[in-house]
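Question (not urgent): is this output format expected?
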Amino acid sequence: MSRLSTPPSIAASPEASRPMLEAVQKQLGVTPNMFRLVANSPAGLEGYLGLNGALGKGTLDARTRERIALAVAEVNACTYCLSAHTYLGKNLAKLDDAEMAANREGGSSDPMAAAAVRFAVKVTRERGHVSDADVQAVKAAGYNDAQVIEIVLLVALNTLTNYVNEVAKTEVDFPVVSPRAAR
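Got this back:
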């Protein structure tokens, strides 16, 4: 059971959040619990959706973004986000089970994507305090400065949702996937 209230519907959400939730509903066909939870703060929802939307227009493809989300959720041991991104990875990004397992372990079957995932895991675990060699490795794999920034921002965005969902103990409304990471 969630420790923070999750409005049961868009109509029960704060008025300022309703247009944003309606847009989520239109895009996804559902309004996941996390969005309704964050909607308690219209400013929080606007901030989350704004950064998420902006990164969706970045240079990293949806498959790489989902790979990073899976890796970060595993490191942060967030059941809600791991469950959501496993569903999204399979159904939207079309990642197979073996690839998602590799992502959760900090890698990928694709060498370039593996470098992004390894870097994202390092940023997450080290809370941004990565070495020159870490940055050089992701750049040597073919990522430019803008893409390195996008990877860091994806780590931050996913860490944000991991923390919100762990603090709230958001009820998982996707098929449940439990993290292997120790807390």
